[in-house]
Structures
1.
Amino acid sequence: MRPIRASIDLGALRHNLAVARRHAPSAKLMAVVKANAYGHGLMRAARGLRDADAFAVLELDAAVRLREAGYAHRILLLEGFFAVSELETIADHRLATVVHSMEQVRLLRSTRVKQKLEVHLKINTGMNRLGIALRDVPRAIELLQTAQISQIVLMTHFACAEEHDGVREQLQRFEQVASTQPLPRNLANSAALLRHPSTHADWVRPGIMLYGASPFDDQNAEELGLRPVMTLTSEIIATQELKAGDAVGYCASFRATQPMRVGIIACGYADGYPRHASTGAPVRVAGVRTRLLGRVSMDMLCVDITEIPQAETGSEVILWGAGMPVEAVAASAGTVSYELLCALALRVPVIEIDAL
């Protein structure tokens, strides 16, 4: 069996949830478990995050799975419904739904369902992705109040919450329409929760921080008190001795300038490691941080073990996670930790641990 595997630490999930609560003690906490819980496994993450006040997902079938597994939490559909036919399922499973367009508002008003629905009305305050235009918010609320709605929560999403002054303009726009509405609010993502207490309101909805990765470029997860949940490990499966001038991997993109030892690792882009990572990306081998060499192949990658004499076939390799921050790997590959975690391939075996 190939030695690559991912371990998911439920204790780290609980720890990171506690960190979120300490930052926003007066708000209810909605754990974002969309995209298969950022690649960690929906049901696995739900077990680790069961002390959250609510869950947020993207897919209706994921919400139904949570409900059928016995989770009585509030469950919010972050993109809402895509067809009127979904409203009955939403009502039957007591799900909450985002409403982000006037078309959805009108559909809710004209459709009869068995139970009243909770709606999180998403307001476009400047990200210009999803959301009701500011000018339409009063009319949207008026129409929803005549529909089969049990509660309206006002919601927005911050585009630049990782910046020190990144929420000010959007929060001002939000207040323009929300200040006259005595309705609950759902505003803060991970970055806003950690950096902007003014956004905490009634609900906070952390995502990436729950999985032990930082949303910031200027603060790492350890500095924020977070613990990595996913650790991707493998082993050296072969070694090579290079002399000056020898090349490594496809297209000979790395060429040795002096004698070197190279370790061949059982991990490639078919496992979810970023193909666009290049020479210099950090890897931990036999407890020592070293670097990737050359191009990532489908099933293998190569690392420099010249200065790690204890490294040999069978030595442990940490691609990211405990001992190798996923943010560092992502930054070296020109991407973000979200992408790496979500891209874990189905062929990688996953084991569940509880380190606390």
2.
Amino acid sequence: MADPQAVEAPDDPRVADYVGLTDGARRMKHEPGAGFFIAEGEKVIARTAAAGYPPRSLLVSPARLADLMPAVEALDCPVYVASYDVLQAVTGFHVHRGALASFGRLPLRSAADVLAQARRVVVMEAVTNHTNLGAVFRSAAALGMDAVLLSPNSCDPLYRRTVRVSMGQVFSVPYAYLERWPEGIDEVRAAGFRVLALTPDAGATDLGELEVGPDQRIALVFGAEGPGLTEEVMAASDERVRIPMSGGVDSLNVGSAAAVAFWVLGRRPDLAAPGTVGIMSADVITPSS
């Protein structure tokens, strides 16, 4: 690791990657176009580096530098050290973790490549809430899903908040964008997957009672918080499934619903073969937050 360099002014051009991190709309356009993303916190930075993303720079507080050293000492990039006041002035928020890193992006995988290597897949339509998407990736990694596919209007999995909420699991679960939508559902089906749309509709099949063959590839498609899946995607799915609700609750937050669905299917003997992957298409309709 390079010797630390002090940054004493928020307009220092060396830390341009970190300016205005709270401006989500700007960052969503700027970062992918410029070919980088931001990781926050010691564990996430370490996982990002371990996943093979090329480091551009580190920006840390003096108090966090020693703790961060074991995770980043092998990184070949500039290390900038700044006070918490300067960090806040640069980023727009109080960086209480005291550690940020800028990494270069790797080429995106194609949906066909991801589908070819999976048996359990999550499909997300128009999920623009970064926290929800991060939660889905973390649950997918923990509960045996093999890949995540995104509609073109879903948010960036490498956005700082998504990476942080996922605890870096966006790097362990393969993902790709379905470039055509909703025609991408047909691409999933053509790859050999049974597409299941999760919905709170009482007439849908109870997820726990779903009949699935031992060699069947399954896909769950989830919609955005509030509107859920569009009618076009619901119609393109093979079947609608639901998580039974009680207590007058009509549905779950999309991140919670995904975790429940992954866990239920993971417990199924016919779907739980070690080392395999599967796809599920689930349409989750939830109230606006």
